Amino acid sequence: MLRSVKGFICRPLKLDHGYALHTAAKDCFSSVLSQDIQTPAEKPRAIFYTNESDPAKHSEQHEGRYYSVPLEELKAVLPHGLPYRFQQQIKTFKEACVMVRKPALELFTYLKNTNFAHPVVRYVIYGERGTGKTMTLCHVVHFCSRQGWLVLHIPDAHLWVKNCKELMQSSYNKERLDQPLQASFWLRNFRTTNERFLKEIKTQQKYVWGKRDSTEQGRPLGEVVEQGLTRVKNASDVVGVVLKEIKQQSSLGSFRVLVAVDGVNALWGRTTLKKEDKSPVSPEELTLVHNLRKMMMNNWSNGAVVTTLSQTGSLFKPSSAHLPHELLGKEGFDALDPFVPILVPNYTELEFESCYRYYLHCRWLQHEKGESLPGCGLQSLFSCSFSTLLCSFSTRSSLSARTEDGKEELRFLSGSNPWQLERLAAPL
To answer: CA 308 to CA 137: how far, in whole Å?
Structure first.
C-alpha cells in the first residue's frame, strides 16, 4: 500500500505542471491565436475555433479552441456517453463542438508514444465536479476511433449498480446476477460503434446459450452480439463473451482496443440493489461488473484503459470527494495500481475566454442590459448561494452577460468551472 500511495503522490506533481492560470490572459490569448494558419475565408468565429477536426493532429497550438465533430460521425462514435447538457447544446446550436484541452492533449501524447507490446497502461482522469472529465474521455474516444481502434465505451458505470429495474439469477453462475436490460442496451451501442470489427473478429471457441442456441467456433463476433440482442436474457453472458474474445485477440496484434469507462469507481463501491431476500447486492455479484473488472487488469496488451472518477453518481461518498484514493477506496485503488493520474482542472484564462466567445457567437448569451441583484454585487456575492444566484438570473435577467463587466461577473460566479459556467449562461 505504501508503494501505491507513494506512486500516487509523486506522479501528479509532474502531470499537474502547466495548469496554472495565465497571468496575462489577453497577451496569451493573442499569441496562441497567431499560431493557427489564417485563411481568407475564415469567419470571426476563428478566434475560438480551429478547422483541424482530427484529434490526432491536435497540439498545444489548438489548446483552448473548439473543433467540430460532424453530427453523423458523432452518432457512430459516441451513440451514448455525452453529457446530457452537451446533448442539449448540440440540438440548440445544430453543431457539436468540443474544446481542445490540455488533459486530452496529454493523453494523446501518452497514447502516441505507447509500446503496445507491453501490458496495457491504465489512466485515471480525476478532478473536482464539473471540470470536464467526461468530455475529456469523449475526446479520447474520438481520437482512438479516428485511429481505427476498437472502442469499448462504458458511459456511466454507476447505472450498473443502482436503480436497476430487472435483476435475474445467472444461468451460467448461480452466484451471480444478470442485468439483461443494461446489457442489451450496451450491446446495441457497441454494435453501432464497432460495426466493421464484428465481421472481422471470429470466435475462438463454441458457445452454447441454451438447448437450441449456440455459436460455433470461427463465426463472426457479430453473431454473438446478435444473440444478446435477440435473446435478451442471454445479454449479460454475451457481454462477457464479447469482452473475453476481444481481450484475448487484441494481444495477438490484430487490432488495438480502447477501454473507456466513465465513473470507474462504481466497480468497487456499494450498490443500491437488493436481492429477493432484501439483502444488499455487492458489485462483484453482478455479471456485468465481474466481467468489466477483468478488462481493468493489465494482463493483456495492444490497448489502453482510460477511466474517469465521478462524484455525481458515487454512492455513499462525500460530495466533496474527488481524489483517486477517496473515490476508489483501498480495493479499487489497489486494483488499478499502477495507473497514470490525469487531472482535469477548471478553465484557464484562455479556455474561459474561448468558451465565453463561443457562447456569444451561438447567441447563448443575449441580455445586454439588466438590473443588479439587490445586495448581491461583487462585494457581497460570497453571501449568496449558487442556486439563489442562478434562480435570480433566470427570472430577472439580472446579468449584463454581453458586456465586459458581465463577463467578469460570470467568471467570478462560476469560478471558471465549466459546468457552473454553462448553468449560469443557459438562462441568460
So the answer is: 7
Could you read off the pLDDT of 161-195 as tens digits, one per residue?
Answer: 987 878 999 988 889 999 999 999 999 999 999 99
Q: How far apart are CA 319 and CA 264, in angstroms?
A: 16
pTM over 0.85: no
Q: Report yes or no on 313 lying in a domain.
A: no
Query: Dmax of the chain from CA atoms?
Result: 74
Mean pLDDT of 98-124: 98
DSSP assignment of 44-75, as one string? Answer: GGGGTB-S---GGG--GGGTT-EEEE-HHHHH
List all residues 6 or more positions away from 164 whose beta carbon is below 8 Å from its beta carbon: 179, 181, 182, 273
Cβ 25 vs Cβ 349: under 8 Å: yes
Of residues 414, 290, 281, the one with CA closest to residue 352: 414
Is 3 among the domain residues? no
Judge contact between 186 and 154, C-beta under 8 A.
Answer: yes
Q: Say if residues 237 and 288 touch (Cβ distance below 8 Å).
A: no
Residue 27: predicted pLDDT = 42
User: Are 96 and 74 contacting, i.e. CB atoms less than 8 angstroms apart?
Assistant: yes
* End-to-end C-alpha distance for the chain, whole angstroms: 49
What element of type H or E holds 303?
strand 303-308
**3-class secondary structure, 168:** strand
| CA atoms 209, 212, 218, 220: torsion sign | negative
Report which of 398, 25, 253, 41 is spatially closest to residue 33, judged by C-alpha positions.
25
Containing domain of residue 410, as a range? 369-425
Please indicate, yes or no, if residue 157 is contained in any of the structural domains: no
Confidence label for 37 from pLDDT (cuts 50, 70 and 90) = very low
DSSP assigned state of 37: P
Task: Give tens-digit pLDDT for 194-228.
Answer: 999 999 999 999 999 988 889 999 999 999 999 99
State which H helix or E strand residue 209 sits in.
Answer: none
Peptide bond into 418 cis (omega under 30): no
Residue 80, SS3?
A: coil
What domain count does the chain have?
1
The answer to whether residue 202 is domain-embedded is: no
Q: How far are the Cα atoms of 89, 176, 271 from residue 279, in angstroms, in the given order?
A: 42, 14, 11
Residues forming a β-bridge with 33: none
